[in-house]
Design brief:
The structure holds 2 protein chains of 2 kinds. Chain A is built from 12 helices and no strands. Chain A is an all-alpha fold. The relative contact order of chain A is 0.17. In chain B, strands 12, 13, 14, 15 and 16 form a 5-stranded antiparallel sheet that branches. A 4-stranded antiparallel sheet of chain B has the order 4-5-6-7, with no helix packed on it. Chain B has a 4-stranded antiparallel sheet with strand order 8-9-10-11, with no helix packed on it. In chain B, a hairpin with a 5-residue loop joins strand 19 and strand 20. The longest helix of chain B is centred in the C-terminal third of the chain and has 24 residues.
Chain lengths: ~325, ~400
C-alpha cells in the first residue's frame, strides 16, 4: 500500500474497488487538447493531435518505465514467475524435440505481436514450414493465457501498489477471449508483414519493424483494457486505439523504441547462435535479463493504460 | 590424386604430396573423375570459363596426355564435375543441360535438359541419372529430373510442394534418390517414377553444393548449420550431432565406422555412424574446407578460401585417442538444472535489492493519482514550470 509520502501525490484518494465497470468519460482536458489541435496529414490524423508531452494525459517515457520496472522488480511473483516460465518453456520445447538456438526464448515474454511472431517461428522449427502455421494457431491459445495472466497481474500490481494475488491471475484468465481475439488480429498483421519483402530489402525490413510497432501502438492496451473493463471486443479495441492516440503521448515512439530494443538486445545475449539443448550460464543470464526487460516494458504499458483510461473518450473524435 | 585449380589440373602422389605433373586449364576449380578409357587410366575433367570454351577433357593419369581425339564441347560452363558409371561420364552445365559422354571415344551419347542450372555432380544409379536443377529466378522452383541412363529420355521430374529455389545434391540409396529440400525435409525419391518413397524432417537447410553420404541403408545428411543427421527410410535409429559450424561446400564421406565432415572454419570432424558421438575434431584453420577424398590410407582435404589453396593428407595417428562426446543437442539434466538455479539467482538479484530499497512503496496506481480534472499530478514533477492549460 502507499506510504502516503510520495512528493507528487498531493491528493491521495482512498483506493476504490476494482474499477472494472467504471464508466469513463472524456475529461475536459482531453477534450480541450483534442479540439485545440489540428493535426496535419494522414499520419497526424492517425496519431492524433500534437500536444506537448507535459500537457498530455499519457505519462512520460521516464515515468512509465520507472513505474513499470519498480513494480516488476519489487514483486517476486512477477520476476521469478517470468524467469521460471522462460525456463519451463525451454524444457517443453526440448521435450518436443526442438533443435535450435536459445534465441527461441528471447521474445518469449515480449509483448504481442513480437511474441506471436516468435511462437510462429518456434512452431515452424518444430513442425516444419508447411505444418508450422497450423501448429502456430493452437499456440495462440497458450499465448492468450500467458498474456492475459501477465496483464492481470500487472494491472493488479498497480492497483494494489506493488502486490499481486491469485485474483490478478483470475482477472487475467477472464480476459482470455478478448486477448485471444487481439492475438489473432496480431497474427494476421504479422502474416501481412511477411509480404513486406516485395518492397525490397530496405523498405521491407523497415516495414517488418514498423508494422509490429504500429500493431502494438494501436492495440497494445487491449489486454489491460480487457482486464480492467471487461467490455465487448469492439469496444475494447476502439478504446485501446483511442488511448494510443492520447494527445501528446508519443505512444508510437514508445512502441517503436520497444520493438527496436526487442530486435537489437537479443544480439547481445552470449551464445545466442549456438544450437544446443543446454544453454551456457551466460546465455541463461542474458535470456533472463531480456525477459525481465520485456516484463518491465509490459508493466510500463499497463501503467500508461491505467493513467489514460479515464480520459479515453467513449466515441472516437471525428476529424 | 588429381586436383583442379583455376589454372591447371595437378597430379600428386598421395603418400608424399609431391606434384607429379600439371596440365594447364582455365576454368573454375571442379571435382575430377578417374576412369578407364580402353586400357588407359584416365582423368576426366571440365575446363572453360564461358560457353565458347567449355569442354570435357580426358588425360592419361600417368602422363597427362590427352586420350581422346578431341575434347567434348559443352553448351555452357560446367561446375558440376563428372560422375562415372558404366563406361560413360555424366556432366551438367549452367544452362541445365546434362550430357552423357562415352569414355571410349569422347562422343556425346545423349544430351538432356533440365529447367534450371546445375550446381553440383549428377547422381547415377539404378539406370537413372538424377540432376538437381536450381531455380534460375524467383518465379521458378528447383526441379529434380531423372533421365534414363541409356537413352537420356526424361523418366520423371519432381518439383517440391513447397516452392524452393534450390535443394541439396542427390545421392542414390537403395533405389531412391535422396534429396534434402529447404523446407526441412529429406526425401527418398523413387528412381522409377520420382515419387517420395519416404520423407523425414531435419531442422535446417542443406547447402546446394553438398550431397548426403550413404552407408548400411542409412543416409548421413550434413546441414548448413553444422549438424550431421543420420536418417533412415523407416525413421528409426536416427541421430544428430551438432558441430555449430557451417557445412556449405564439402559433402560428408564415410570412412569405416565414422562419417567425416569438412567444416567452414577449416576444421575436420568425425562422428561415429552408430552412436552419433563425436570421434575427433581438428583445430580450426584459416580457410574453409572445399572437399574431401578418401584413399585406403589417407584422408585428403582441400581448403581454399581467400588465401592460398592447400591440400592436406591425414593418416591415422597411432598415439591419438578418439573422443566419445555426445551432441550438445542432447539434454544434460545437470546443465539444464543450472538454468533453473540461475533463474532463481537472477530473480533474487533483481528483487532483493529492489525490496531493500523500498521500490514497492514507490509503486503508484495511476488511475488514482489523476486530479479531478483528469490532469495527472506527475506532470508537475516531470515538467517543472509548465502550466496546464
Amino acid at each position: 500500500m502507499s506510504n502516503g509520502k510520495g512528493k507528487n501525490r498531493k491528493k491521495p484518494r482512498a483506493r476504490s474497488p476494482r474499477p472494472a465497470t467504471r464508466t469513463t468519460a472524456p475529461t475536459k482536458t482531453a477534450h480541450t487538447a483534442s479540439s485545440a489541435a489540428s493535426p496535419g496529414g494522414l499520419l497526424g490524423r492517425v496519431l492524433g493531435p500534437a500536444v506537448p508531452p507535459s500537457m498530455s494525459e499519457m505519462p512520460t517515457f521516464r515515468r512509465s518505465l520507472a513505474q513499470g520496472f519498480l513494480l516488476v522488480a519489487s514483486n517476486a511473483v512477477l520476476v521469478l514467475g517470468a524467469l521460471v516460465f522462460v525456463y519451463l518453456v525451454w524444457l517443453v520445447l526440448i521435450g518436443f524435440g526442438f533443435v535450435g538456438t536459445p534465441l527461441a526464448l528471447t521474445q518469449m515474454l515480449a509483448m504481442p505481436p513480437l511474441s506471436t511472431a516468435f511462437d510462429t517461428q518456434n512452431a515452424i522449427s518444430l513442425a516444419g514450414q508447411q505444418n508450422g502455421l497450423i501448429v502456430a494457431l493452437p499456440l495462440l491459445l497458450f499465448r492468450a493465457v500467458v498474456v492475459g495472466v501477465l496483464s492481470g497481474l500487472l494491472v493488479e500490481g498497480f492497483e494494489r501498489r506493488g502486490s499481486t494475488s491469485l485474483g490478478g491471475v483470475v482477472r487475467g484468465l477472464a480476459s482470455f477471449p478478448i486477448v485471444l481475439a487481439y492475438l489473432m488480429l496480431s497474427f494476421v498483421a504479422l502474416f501481412l508483414a511477411q509480404f513486406g519483402s516485395v518492397f525490397g530489402p530496405g523498405l521491407g525490413t523497415l516495414l517488418q519493424v514498423l508494422l509490429p510497432a504500429f500493431v502494438l501502438w494501436a492495440l497494445g492496451f487491449v489486454p489491460f483494457a480487457a482486464v480492467r473493463e471487461g467490455r465487448p471486443l469492439a469496444d475494447t479495441l476502439r478504446r485501446s486505439y483511442a488511448a494510443a492516440r492520447t494527445p501528446g503521448g508519443r505512444h508510437l515512439s514508445f512502441c517503436i523504441v520497444y520493438v527496436l530494443l526487442a530486435f537489437v538486445l537479443p544480439l547481445f545475449v552470449p551464445g545466442r547462435s549456438i544450437i544446443t539443448a543446454n544453454p551456457a550460464p551466460g546465455t541463461w543470464i542474458g535470456l533472463y535479463i531480456l525477459s525481465f526487460l520485456h516484463v518491465g516494458f509490459t508493466a510500463a504499458m499497463a501503467y500508461r493504460w491505467l493513467a489514460v483510461e479515464s480520459s479515453v473518450p467513449e466515441t472516437l473524435a471525428r476529424r | 590424386m588429381f586436383v583442379t585449380g583455376p589454372d591447371a589440373l595437378y597430379a600428386f602422389d598421395t603418400s608424399t604430396g609431391t606434384q607429379l605433373w600439371r596440365d594447364a586449364r582455365d576454368a573454375p576449380p571442379v571435382p575430377v573423375a578417374v576412369a578407364s578409357v580402353g586400357k588407359i587410366r584416365a582423368v576426366v575433367y571440365t575446363t572453360g570459363r564461358d560457353a565458347d570454351t567449355s569442354k570435357v577433357i580426358a588425360v592419361d593419369a600417368a602422363t597427362g596426355k590427352e586420350v581422346w581425339a578431341a575434347p567434348v564441347t559443352l553448351q555452357d560452363v560446367s561446375r558440376t564435375g563428372l560422375t562415372i558409371d558404366g563406361g560413360r561420364a555424366f556432366v551438367g552445365d549452367e544452362s541445365g543441360h546434362v550430357y552423357a559422354v562415352d569414355l571410349a571415344d569422347g562422343a556425346i551419347a545423349w544430351t538432356g535438359k533440365t529447367p534450371g542450372k546445375l550446381a553440383g555432380p549428377v547422381a547415377v544409379g539404378g539406370g537413372v541419372v538424377v540432376a538437381v536443377a536450381a531455380a534460375t529466378d524467383t518465379s521458378t522452383s528447383t526441379t529434380i529430373v531423372g533421365f534414363d541412363e541409356s537413352t537420356g529420355d526424361e523418366s520423371w521430374s519432381v518439383v517440391p510442394d513447397a516452392a524452393a529455389s534450390f535443394a541439396s545434391l542427390a545421392t542414390i540409396v537403395d533405389g531412391n534418390a535422396v534429396v534434402a529440400f529447404p523446407e526441412g525435409t529429406v526425401q527418398g525419391l523413387s528412381l522409377e517414377d520420382g515419387t517420395a518413397s519416404w520423407s523425414t524432417r531435419i531442422p535446417a537447410l542443406v547447402s546446394p553444393f553438398v550431397a548426403s553420404a550413404a552407408a548400411d541403408g542409412s543416409v548421413l545428411v550434413a546441414d548448413s548449420n553444422g549438424g550431421v543427421h543420420r536418417v533412415t527410410p523407416v525413421g528409426d535409429d536416427g541421430w544428430l550431432y551438432e558441430f555449430n559450424v557451417a557445412i556449405l561446400r564439402a559433402s560428408p564421406v564415410v570412412v569405416g565406422h565414422v562419417v567425416v565432415l569438412g567444416l567452414e572454419d577449416g576444421s575436420l570432424g568425425a562422428v561415429d555412424r552408430d552412436s552419433g558421438h563425436l570421434v575427433f575434431h581438428t583445430a580450426a584453420s584459416s580457410a574453409p574446407i572445399d572437399g574431401l577424398a578418401v584413399t585406403p590410407d589417407t584422408l585428403v582435404v582441400v581448403r581454399s578460401g581467400a588465401g592460398r589453396p592447400t591440400i592436406t593428407g591425414y593418416t591415422t595417428d597411432p598415439d591419438g585417442r578418439l573422443l566419445d562426446e555426445q551432441s550438445p543437442t542432447v539434454p544434460v539434466p545437470g546443465d539444464l538444472a543450472l538454468g533453473f538455479v540461475l533463474a532463481l539467482a537472477v530473480g533474487a538479484v533483481i528483487v532483493v535489492p529492489a525490496r531493500m530499497l523500498g521500490a514497492r512503496r514507490r509503486v503508484e496506481d495511476p488511475s488514482e493519482t489523476s486530479g479531478e480534472d483528469g490532469r495527472d499530478e506527475r506532470d508537475e514533477t516531470d515538467a517543472p514550470g509548465q502550466e496546464w492549460p
